[in-house]
Design goal:
This protein has 441 residues and is mainly alpha-helical. The chain has one domain (2-340). Helix content is 66%, strand content 0%. The chain is built from 20 helices and no strands. The chain has helices spanning 2-29, 34-46, 50-61, 66-79, 84-105, 109-121, 123-127, 135-149, 156-172, 177-191, 194-203, 205-220, 222-227, 234-247, 249-265, 268-286, 298-308, 317-332, 359-363, 416-439. Helix 1 packs antiparallel against helix 5. The termini are far apart.
């Protein structure tokens, strides 16, 4: 009895330590992406213009991430500030998601340590835990979904909760349905009751209502309809995966291990979740990924890590040691490890490859919390990184009627003024020669 209480206390202390370390890493790496900052500025400006406010409300409610836009727009309206407020909100959401993973999802101490170590080593997960993009809210809803999903109970309230969380996730980012729908279908198959099916439909009603309004708006607005068209580009998706593997190998390594863990668990819940990861991964690759390295893999990383923590033989010392070494090696080969972010990070960013780049590396010097100093106005600069030569100014030629009045420009042929000077020089030379001839005996 006493040993169990001591073990539980130790586990909670380690979980709290893991959350604290993640919070410190998050504070060192917090930043805001360029397009997100522009969107926040538009939200701030709409608060003083009624017409702009109605237009911004429509874009917020029927944009790509409606729930995130509504939440962050409310934060900006309350605080009136567009740099520190979004970063603080994103940090709180991401820390809450990590706390759920470490306190509620990790079944033992070994799984907790591995999960905490992998979280702070993954560039994709840490980079987009702030960034001003909707990933922090995705992290929180995914962690809640996984917590409810892995509960042993099969009550109707659990089915309703899963469906509602799946709908909330889709309202933040629609492609998360690839993750949640297989898990929800397995839950309905395990219960095999009409009551569970009706509760699942009731939980999905917010999403269904929003989709109906979105389609109605798309029919009346051709631009909105064109924005909803998917672009399939498997070749770009391949390069997106290669770039992420080269710059952030631990993220794809955890994804592969999470899919393999489903077969080790021999559990229908784990296999359904693994099928969701594979479906989402296939969708990312077919649609070309993103211009920001690792952004589309960050939510999948969280789900795969939750699956890995369920593997029972990780409690054995040999397996635990091997997993810890593997995470350390993959984190060592990370091009920009989150633990190594410092003042000089991003001064010489790597060039984009196939249109893909490390967005935090290119933005850290201008819109990051680590670069802020007392009295500084953020962002510091949003045009070009340090040590970048300024663009050359084109030479502006004067009008033709002013060419005689000005000194001849460098590199241009001498015009009338130059010809006059040459004439004067030749006349003076002829006069000197005549004088010299007369002076001869």
């Amino acid at each position: 009895m006493v040993a169990a209480v001591v073990n539980a206390t130790t586990t909670r202390a380690l979980a709290a330590l893991g959350v604290a370390v993640f919070a410190v890493v998050l504070a060192r790496t917090a930043w805001i992406e360029r397009d997100a900052y522009r969107a926040f500025h538009a939200m701030q400006q709409s608060a003083t213009d009624a017409q702009a406010e109605s237009r911004a409300l429509e874009d917020t409610a029927f944009g790509a991430h409606p729930l995130w836009n509504l939440m962050i727009g409310g934060v900006i309206r309350v605080t009136g500030e567009i740099f520190f407020s979004p970063i603080a909100a994103a940090m709180l959401l991401s820390i809450a998601a990590v706390a759920i993973l470490l306190f509620l999802l990790a079944p033992n101490t070994a799984a907790l340590i591995l999960a905490a170590f992998a979280l702070v080593c993954s560039s994709a997960f840490v980079d987009f835990a702030t960034s001003g993009l909707p990933y922090p809210l995705v992290y929180l809803f995914l962690a809640l979904f996984l917590w409810v999903y892995f509960k042993d109970t099969t009550t109707p309230e659990r089915t309703l909760g899963l469906a509602l969380l799946a709908a909330m996730l889709a309202l933040v980012q629609l492609d998360t349905l690839f993750i949640t729908v297989p898990a929800l279908l397995w839950t309905l198959y395990a219960q095999r009751s009409w009551q569970a099916a009706m509760l699942a439909i009731a939980g999905m009603l917010p999403l269904l209502l929003w989709l109906a309004l979105y389609l109605a708006l798309a029919q009346s607005n051709p631009a909105q309809e064109d924005a909803a068209v998917l672009v399939f580009d498997p070749a770009q998706g391949f390069w997106y995966a290669v770039y992420t593997l080269r710059r952030d190998p631990i993220t794809l390594g955890v994804l592969a291990a999470g899919c393999a863990a489903a077969f080790v668990l021999r559990d229908g819940r784990g296999r359904a979740l693994s099928a969701g990861i594979l479906c989402a991964l296939l969708f990312v690759l077919l649609t070309g990924g993103s211009a920001m390295a690792g952004s589309r893999f960050a939510p999948l990383f969280l789900v795969a890590l939750a699956l890995i923590t369920r593997v029972p033989w990780l409690q054995r010392p040999p397996a635990f040691g091997a997993a810890l070494i593997a995470i350390g090696l993959l984190g060592y080969f990370n091009a920009n490890p989150p633990l190594a972010s410092a003042t000089i990070f991003g001064e010489n960013p790597a060039k984009p490859d196939h249109g893909i780049r490390d967005e935090r590396e290119h933005t850290f010097q201008f819109r990051s919390l680590y670069q802020w100093r007392r009295g500084a106005i953020m962002p510091l600069n949003n045009t070009a990184p340090k040590n970048t030569p300024p663009p050359r100014k084109p030479k502006v030629l004067p009008p033709p009627d002013q060419i005689e009045k000005q000194a001849p420009l460098k590199g241009l042929p001498k015009l009338k003024s130059g010809l006059k000077q040459e004439g004067k020089k030749s006349k003076s030379n002829r006069t000197k020669r005549k004088r010299n001839r007369r002076a001869q005996p």
